[in-house]
Amino acid sequence: MKAPESIMRIVQSLPDKPGVYQYFDKNGVIIYVGKAKNLKKRVSSYFNRDVYETGKTGMLVRKIADIKVIVVDTEMDSLLLENNLIKKHQPRYNVMLKDDKTYPWMCIKNEAFPRVFATRRMIRDGSQYFGPYANVRMMYTLQDLIKQLFPLRNCTLNLSDDNISKHKFRVCLEYHIGNCKGPCEGLQLKEDYDEKIRQIKEILKGNIHGVINYLKDLMEKYSKNLEFENALVVKEKLELLENYKSKSIIVSPNIHNVDVFSLASNDQYVFVNYFKVFSGAIVQSHTLEIKKKLDEPEEELLLLAIAELRTRFESVSKEIILPIKLDIEIPGVILTVPKVGDKKHLLDLSEKNAKYYMRDKLQQYEKLYPRNRVEKILDQMKTDLRLTERPVHIECFDNSNLQGTNAVAAVTVFRDGKPSKKDYRHFNIKTVEGPDDFASMEEIVYRRYKRMIDEEQSLPQLIIIDGGKGQLSSALESLEKLGLRGKIGIIGIAKRLEEIYYPGDQYPLYLDKKGETLKVIQHIRDEAHRFGITHHRQKRQKNMNKSELSEIKGIGVKTVELLLHHFRSVKKIREASTEEIQNVIGKARAAKLLRHFTPDN
Q1: Which of 111, 173, 256, 264 could lock 358 by a disulfide, CB 3.0 to 4.6 Å apart?
Q2: How far is CA 573 from CA 68, 254, 558, 568, 600, in A?
Q3: pLDDT tens-digit profile of 112-126?
Q4: Per DSSP, what are the bridge partners of residue 394?
């Protein structure tokens, strides 16, 4: 199958330049937006036979009815334009960037005696905005710090020089309680107020060290002039700043004004963590969640996240620290992939945050959509164990005997990856004499599935044999007799090294010890062992009881069964009163039983 000639003509006419391409369906709707260093090469790659006829990308390509491109000057331009077009049109086959929230900013208003406040609305009136703050708690901490350090006005009065000189305003309660210094009445000079605003800007940029140094110089100046009250006020402000600084995550004072990006991913999602580092401290942190659509490579998704987050947080950092090398040039920006040192430590910290965020999010999804987790585990088992279908129904067999006596077996059943205890079954071995595990396994597997076939019950997708090659071969013999060989997946698991054996394979398979597949297999195997051992102990105890009671002269098999059915054990028979025993088996047999237990009488 080939692409339509009309599409191929468009592809052949594309330029060998960087830019953005847009795919449209037959209804004129944008279904995909992508970027390219070379538009012609990139778009052409979608239309080779392997891509066009198979996979998720093939589904996209077969729906393309038109192609439009936008040529740009640089790769970075194409990255930013792609990001903007995805957010605007939200094409069906593009990845989803989850968290289109309106984050708050700290605003320094464009006015005389500027106000400083938090807002979620950015108005282009010349005001300065700092942020946005993904961590709202951090923003409010900063806001409280600024309020304690610098008393500023919060009214909306027009404090022009003319209005102040004409005494149009009077100080309010905020002045009297010390939250404002009264610029409305000219009680605070504009130069002093503007100096406070300059220091606030430095704090909001993350440059706390500069403000601390300024305040230290000011305190020293007041002390030399014997203005101890003013020096004490400045000292208190210094302590506030030092306390705030101690709560910041300090990486290294040598790392200044850099962005850090790291990622964590699984089959469906990529989580990209972003750190903004200023003067060695992390001043902003945010994690972006991206849902995959077309099995996009991590490099492509990381690039998309860089464009989105640097635009959103208005970053102008001249260095970006990354976990992997990216094939892109950003004018005026150095891309660093550290191997050791402070920058590597910073990258590791970012990766830890990405992994924590991913784990937390996936746990939330599992609670909201538990069925999705079950299906994911079953799909993983299908892949790991090379099965033809999901193992929704699994059965595990285990033998139990003690020195060849009281041989029993058990089968445990899992449905949707969880125990189905109502379906557990015990087996007493009927046709095998002595401790022959192989023959016992052959018997119980045959009996189990012969009955299920006769009763037209649904068969499992996977059978697990608790044992190595020998037990597995015996189970296969039974499946062969029943015509089920090759129709049901079957494996053996050896206890010692958790080796997985397949029919006909010489060497075992070793599964990931932390993977869900091995955990499920171990769980059902342990359940089979526990269930079988419990039944074996009960049977052995019952037989031991029967053996002791049967030795008593004048006590027959039926009498023994009556006694054990009523008292459950020989111990309880010994502890019972004469009257209780007589009520069960009569006075004559009770007398014989009591003589056995109390021979001295």
Answers
A1: 264
A2: 92, 83, 16, 8, 18
A3: 999 999 888 878 788
A4: 414, 462
What pTM, to 2 d.p., does this model score? 0.51
Torsion of CA 473, 478, 483, 489, to 10 degrees: -50
> What is the C-alpha to C-alpha distance for residues 374 and 48, in angstroms, rounded to an integer?
36
Q: To which H or E segment does residue 415 belong?
A: strand 405-415
pLDDT digit string (tens) for 118-161?
A: 888 878 788 888 766 766 766 777 787 788 778 889 899 999 98
Whole-number Cα distances in Å, 357 to 258, 270, 515: 22, 11, 20
**Structural tokens at position 218:** 């000011």
- At 402, the pLDDT band (50, 70, 90 cuts) reads very low
Residue 90, sorted as left (phi over 0), alpha (psi -120 to 50) or beta, turns out to be: left
Q: Which helix (H) or strand (E) holds 585?
A: helix 578-585
Q: 467: which 2 tokens?
A: 């044992």
Q: Is the pLDDT of residue 276 over 50?
A: yes
Q: Where on the phi/psi map is residue 397: left (φ > 0), alpha (ψ -120 to 50), or beta?
A: beta
Half-sphere exposure at residue 88, Cβ-oriented, CA atoms within 13 angstroms: 10
Residue 32, Cβ density class (10 Å: 0-12 exposed, 13-18 middle, ≥19 buried) = buried
Domains and CATH numbers, the chain: 5-94 (3.40.1440.10), 105-249 (no CATH), 258-303+315-367 (no CATH), 381-538 (3.30.420.340), 551-597 (no CATH)
Structure tokens at 148: 């304690």
With a cut of 80, say whether residue 336 has pLDDT above it.
yes
